[in-house]
Amino acid sequence: MSRPPERALMALLLTTLATPLEASVDASAYHGFWLWSATRHQPVLEQASTLYLHQGEILDRPGGPRFVKLGRVPSPLKAGQVWLVVRVNALPISPAHQQVLVRLYEAWRAAGAQVAGIQIDFDAATRQLDRYGDALQQLRRALPPGCKLSVTGLLDWAKTGDVAELNRLPVDELVIQTYQGTRTVPGYQAYLPAMAQLTIPFKIGLVQDGEWDPAWQTTLAASPHYRGEVVFLLNRPAPSPGAGRAISSFTPPAP
C-alpha cells in the first residue's frame, strides 16, 4: 500500500535531516532575491526572475505608528515579478497606512514594473498567529483587486505553532526565513520537516553566504505547495572607489 502524500513527504524530510551536507549559499545559483534598502548592486540581480524590494517600515512611535520610506523609487524592472516589502513592528496596520501600501503598489505598476503585490515582514509571536491572521485579513480587504499578499515567517511557526492556524493565514504565499539578521539559524534543519504540513504556497528564505544543504530543495519540492527559494542579499566587502553602485541608483536593463 502506498503512503499518503503527507507521510511520504515527511519521510523524505526526515531522510534529508539524517544526512546533512552543508554548503554556503551561492546567490548565483538562485533567481529570487530580497533587495533591502542600502544594499549595493550585485551582478546576480541581472538574473533575477523575482525581486522582493524593501520599500519602507511602519514603526510604532509614542505619537502613533509612522511610515518611513526607504529603498528605490518606482521604475521599470527587468524582473518578471516584483514584491514590495514593508517591515512592520506594530499591528494592526491603520487605514491610513493601508492606503500608503496601496499607493506604493499603484505607483510601481504605473511605472511599468510587474508588481505581484505587497509583502509584510513582521515577526508575529508563534502563539498569536490568529491575531496576525485577523490583521492580515483587514489589510487584504484594503488592497486593490489583483494585488497579492505575501508574508515572511519564522522557522518556529510551523514547528511549535498551530499549523492549522498557519494554513488559515489569508495570504498568497509564505516565505519562511532560515536566518536571523545576517546569519543562518543554528540547527535550522530540525524545523524543516514541519513544512510538510503546510497547505498554502510557501518558499524558503536563505541568507547569502549562509549555511544551507541544497538537498532540501529537492526534498521540499515533493510538496505541491513549495515555490522555491529566496536569497537575502548582503553587502559584500566594499568595492574600490567608483566600482560599486548603491541600491538607490541601481537600474536594471529594460525587459
Give a structural overview:
With 255 residues, the chain is an alpha/beta fold. The protein has a single domain (5-234), classed as TIM Barrel. The chain is built from 6 helices and 13 strands. Strands 2-3-5-6-7-8-11-13 form an 8-stranded parallel beta barrel. It has a two-stranded antiparallel ribbon with strand order 1-12. The protein has a two-stranded antiparallel ribbon with strand order 9-10. Helix 3 links the parallel strand 6 (115-121) and strand 7 (148-154). It is globular, with a radius of gyration of 18 Å. This is DUF3142 domain-containing protein. Residues 1-23 form the signal peptide.
Radius of gyration: 18 Å
CA-to-CA gap between the ends? 50 Å
Percentage of residues in helical conformation: 10-25%
Poorly predicted runs: 15-20, 240-255
Shape: globular
Count of distinct structural domains: 1
Give the strand content: 25-35%
The CATH class turns out to be Alpha Beta
- What is the correct CATH architecture? Alpha-Beta Barrel
What is the N-to-C succession of helices and strands?
HEEEEEHEHEHHEEEEEHE
Please count the beta strands (DSSP E, at least 2 residues each). 13
Strand order of the largest sheet: 2-3-5-6-7-8-11-13
The major beta sheet can be summarized as: 8 strands, parallel, barrel
Task: Work out the helix count.
Answer: 6
- Name the average pLDDT: 86
Structure class: alpha/beta
If you consult CATH, what is the topology? TIM Barrel
